[in-house]
Amino acid sequence: MKVGAFVCDCGAPDAIDAEGVREGVGDDDVEVVASAGHLCGDGLEKAAAVVNEYDLDHVVATAPDAGCQRRIREMAEAQGLHPDATAFVDHREGSGWVHDTPAATEKTARTIDATVAGLREESPSRTVSKEAGDHVVVVGDAAAASALSGRADVTLIANGRDFGDPEHDLDEVDVERGRVREVSGSFGEFELALEARVTEDCIGCMKCVEQGPDEGVTSYPVDIAPDAPDGEYLECCPVDAIEPEGVERTLEADQVVYPGGPTKSRGGQLGYFSHFDGGVAAAVESQLGGITKPQHLDIEMDICASGDSGVEGCTRCTDACPHEAVSRPAVDEVAFDETACMNCGACTSACPTGAVELREPTNERLAREVESLLDIDEGGRVSQFFGGDAGIESPVVAFVCSEQAADALESYGRRAGRGEDAGYQPILPVRVNCTDTVGEAHVLHALAAGADGVAIVGCGDACLHSGPDPKAELVDRMNVATGDLELGARTAFFAPEGDDPAAFAGELDAFVEGLESSPVPTGEHEATGTGRPDSPREPFTTHDWALESVRRIIEETEPDRDVIRGLDTFGRMEVSDACNLTPTCSTLCPTDAIQRTNDGELQFNHADCVNCGVCESGCPEGAITIEPGLEPSRLPENRDGEEWEPVFEGEMLECVRCGTPFTSRGSMESVRDEVGDLVEGVAGDTEHSIFEYCDECRAQVVFQGANNGR
């Protein structure tokens, strides 16, 4: 990859120092750094010449304005570059207008390096599709049904309302009686359970309407409220269509508009809308017939820790997903609806095994961007250019939500650009799809790479996915963990929202100014994303990546703690004397962190345990307890390289006929106590119990005669 970086002052020459940026950019793939006073205008011809002279295949330009970006992209395409080979850095709203010149200059140089590092890890795009019909069910809202009727096949469920004198045109709308009791299913396959007291045999004669109570019977569609009083009118129907006890039926739909209805998930579900406006109408119309969208997830169910053999294990992805895109069709299974995925990353940051990962940005891409932002040896820090301690003195990595949070920061930049006091600390931004993308591995890696702190910058109350303050639990856990790691509290959540940038700036100032310089040096850590060199899992799973980061931090801090608390993807196994050495736990364990030896020892690999709990749930004796947290003394580097530790010592029985170890003494005695009386004597004339033979020899003893078993 041959990259050219182009720095433009964008009409604000005092915002950053272009020469300082050129000095600060240090990524090896950047062939040239050029600057111009008006890159997207007079400078385009010179930029094109630079692209040709250096035979560039990627362009990174400082251009936050959409029009400037378009012109620069067109220039690059005219020189033969791919449309996706041009990337942009916000050096104005996000740097020059809200920071002083040294800090803005350094931040811009670092961000250019990080952008290049991210481009190296960019994933190719893929799509997923799901077919659907045009049937839209609207619940109780005639205006919404009328608005959609010219675009879709619309059914309006009355839900107790009377549309006998409609204010809206319902000529092309099927109006159905009944009240909605439940909505289930997904896009293209919704089912609505309806209950009514008038059946489909109704002929609309209105006799019950005429004779019934005014508030208890509707005329169009004809129906009787569940709480309507009893009376003779219930017997007046000429076709016996009144059912006082109520009847239920199911209505299918491709999409559902249910204004004021129950929210099926925290962040909304594809094809289900609990309000109606112009945006919803456009969304419904765009999804008629089906949907094709980018594929957001890479899924590998072979390493999923959801459970096995009817035993429930890890539930983190289903608990985390705010969009009903992850379900459990069985107690030990997980299913992903990729068309319903909204790309928030909640399931991926929660998954400890890497069974589900974001396609873009991948964890590795985020890691490389963070490392590049913090790599002061290869570019980024330009304090020497300005002299003294100018620039960014306290590097704080900020995971910034690409939705409302990013927009809010840009609006603060524009405020500062027109002279308002809207500046804030020069945090180092890493764009994420949503703050849900950020998990414990991301925070720990940033600290392992030398960040003084980690700011998670989200949308707060405006979040489209998880609602206000979605990372409170993560922040609390991480600060407990970093406290145990002798780093102190170094993680915080911020929501730049509303018209008060001073509040955001004040909270951020207090956080950054309260941080001490990290004892972990910057520029020295390049993550491999693995917990051990021979790990069977792909790199950058939550557990393995977090383990690698903790090890890096421990090298510098040497914490005197038995357990590092707050780390949810690490489990500590304890086994009681109730253990009978049945192979259930080792069979169920999705990461092979448990094994049983032939000499009756149960062994545990702490470095591989992801705290899914399936061994504890599945243990027939209830002998296993799993507690969260990392215990450094149980890691192989603190046990002379030994990965396995004994957690229970029992006794394995060897078959008295062939010598093969086949079960534990505890298991044999347990089975013998339960069914021994029923099988007494089946071994024939032998001095041994039938329970002392392995399965194969036991069959031979029973069917070939006792003499063969002596």
TrEMBL record:
Recorded superkingdom: Archaea
Keywords annotated in UniProt: 4Fe-4S, Iron, Iron-sulfur, Metal-binding, Oxidoreductase
GO MF term list: 4 iron, 4 sulfur cluster binding; metal ion binding; oxidoreductase activity
Region feature (Disordered): 516-540
A Pfam match: Fer4_4
Domain 4Fe-4S ferredoxin-type: 332-361, 571-599, 600-629
SUPFAM superfamilies: 4Fe-4S ferredoxins
Keyword Iron carried by entry: yes
InterPro entries registered for this protein in UniProt: 4Fe4S_Fe-S-bd, 4Fe4S_Fe_S_CS, Fe-S_Ferredoxin, MvhD/FlpD
Signal peptide: none
The protein's name in its UniProt record: 4Fe-4S binding domain-containing protein
Organism for this UniProt entry: Halolamina pelagica
